[in-house]
Amino acid sequence: MKKFLKRFYVFLIFLFLYAPIFVLIAYSFNSSRSRGAWGGFTLKWYRELFMDREILSALKYTIIIAVLSAVISTILGTAAAIGISQMRKFPRNIVMNISYLPVLNPDIITGVSLMILFIFANIKFGFKTMLIAHITFNTPYVILSVMPKLKQLDTHVYEAALDLGATPWYAFWKVILPQIMPGIVTGCLLAFTLSIDDFVISFFTTGVGVSNLSIAVFSMARRGVNPKINALSTLMFLSVLILLIIVNVRMSRDIKAKKQKEATLV
Amino acid sequence: MNRKSIMAYPYIVWMVLFIVIPILLVFYYGFTMESSAGLTFSLENFKRFFEPVYLMVLVRSFILAALSTGICLLLGYPLAMILASKDFKRKNMMLLLLIVPMWMNFLLRTYAWLTLIEKKGIINSLLSNLNLPTINIIYTTRAVVLGMVYNFLPFMVLPIYTVLSKIDKSVIEAAEDLGANSLTTFKKVIFPLSLPGVISGITMVFMPAVTTFVISRLLGGGHYKLIGNLIEQQFLSVYDWNFGSAISIIMMIVILISMGILSKYEEVREGGGIV
Q1: What is residue A199's three-state secondary structure?
Q2: Domain regions of chain B by residue span
Q3: Euclidean distance between CA atoms A54 and A60, whole angstroms
Q4: Residue A83 is nearest to which of B6, B23, B100, comparing CB atoms?
Q5: Burial class (CB in 10 A: 0-12, 13-18, 19+), A136
Q6: Quick one: what percent of chain B has pLDDT higher than 90?
Q7: pLDDT per residue over A200-230, tens digit each?
Q8: Do the chains contact at A79 and B19, CB–CB below 8 Å?
Q9: Residue B229: what pLDDT?
Q10: B114 close to A (CB below 8 A)
């Protein structure tokens, strides 16, 4: 009985989490525009979605900005993490505490403060400002993912490489970089997903004609319900689901392979 | 070795330009007023915020966010406990399912509820088909709380789950051996040990809830202004940057202080991460 109650509770919560999403998916195939009635199966909204210039350009900007900001903030952040770890304690603490600001501050304040800066400096709002904003809030996350790996680093290996005649650059490339790679990859992925998902900061830093998917959804939803958004949600839900399943399967396969390897070694 | 700190310089320049200067500008505008002699120093903006109209907005934001956080805790803690209990099968599958909605764009998640609870929305058309009275919660504070709970529930469950699944089972067994019933074990052993996760969860729900302006705009229809809406309005429609900056400063200080206090209580932040 207790077990049944537990299961029932879990079921209810997941129903709460998924019912809205499934309703959206179902109604993305509804040919009637009103949600009260089911007008039969259709792919009309998907066709319209792919012909909607606004959404297509938003999709384009979302991806371009996510890729660019992830790459730039990964390079900037990794270099910064290496540099910061070599600093004396006092300047290091200052830099790290300032880097925490965009992480801890509410998004709306980061967005508003950047907006003031761009107006103050007379920079035209658009692609450039949005990219700068994304790099700004992404880089601290990269630093925070690379930093722990640098702390685990054994400096003797690097020194050994130098003693054996490697140039500092070669030693960095061959010794340090491979060791901190997991942190860099995590940071890069984090930056990419944060950028794709961002609404608030983009909302304050974008200009006419440049918007990402979140902004497009917001301006459509403000005008009321639109079946094209249902179609968009369905596509995004499916891509997230597939992506997570792939990641999960690969991870569990890695763990299994590792276990097998250990077993054969023993 | 120390030459390598040069590598941080590009970032430091970036940081000064795009983190430090913008924040300083917010402070500059917050502490000045437009007057005939240009911008002059003034505390007028802060004084204005303590007028009842605006204070109400702050109070409402805190009440709604606290209510949503409380509901998330009440709903989320049992779920985390069930998921963490060892006789629960398909644990990884369930955790994955919990994370999937978090990865979906949160505007779409909020929008989903819009279609459900609309006046002529799906829930109401179902209810009227069954000849039941329809519900009217769209554009009310209840809809805003619903949207917050829906959006932030996984952020409550995950940190609590992480902490609960790390609790040494022998401690619980020891409590049972010593004659504690399950309620006492929970009160005296499990709950105190899970406190870091609870605090982490509260932070992760309360902070975004108190500053949101999207949920209140879409589900509250703009009738129930929250502090986030007030800031957005000052910058994007009223163009009173000075007042908007003052509100931002107040909010920033309140949040940074509460984060500081809370972080003293949680040591297990890492590992309780989102991903």
Answers
A1: coil
A2: 44-265
A3: 10
A4: B6
A5: buried
A6: 49
A7: 999 999 988 899 999 998 888 887 778 888 8
A8: no
A9: 93
A10: yes
Predicted confidence band at A35 (pLDDT cuts at 50, 70, 90)? low
Q: Which chain B positions have a beta carbon within 8 Å of A84's beta carbon?
A: 5, 8
A221 touches chain B (CB under 8 A): yes
C-alpha span between A173 and A179 (Å, rounded):
10
Task: Give the per-residue pLDDT at A9.
Answer: 94
Residue A239 to residue B196: CA distance in whole angstroms? 34
Let me know how long chain B is: 275
- Tell me whether B235 touches chain A (CB under 8 Å): yes
Three-state secondary structure call for residue B157 = helix
Q: Does A8 touch chain B (CB under 8 A)?
A: no
Q: Which two tokens stand for residue B227?
A: 């502090």
pLDDT tens string B237-256: 999 999 999 999 999 998 88
pLDDT higher than 90, residue B101? no
pLDDT classification of B270: cutoffs 50, 70, 90 = very low
For the cut 80, the answer to whether the pLDDT of residue A266 exceeds it is: no
Contact B105 A197 (CB under 8 A): yes
Q: Which residues make beta-bridge pairs with B34? A: B39
SS3 category, B41: strand
pLDDT at B255: 87
Instruction: Say if domain A56-229 classifies as CATH 1.10.3720.10.
Output: yes
Tens-digit pLDDT profile for residues A86-98? 899 999 999 999 9
CA-based R_g, chain A, Å: 24
Amino acid at A221: A
Give the dihedral of Cα atoms A127, A133, A136, A139; nearest 10 deg. -60
Q: Quick one: tokens of A91? A: 């300047």
The CATH number of the domain covering residues in B44-265 = 1.10.3720.10
CA distance A231 to chain B (A): 11
Structural domain spans, chain A:
56-229
Chain A nearest-CA distance from B104, in A, is: 6
Who has greater pLDDT, A40 or A198?
A198
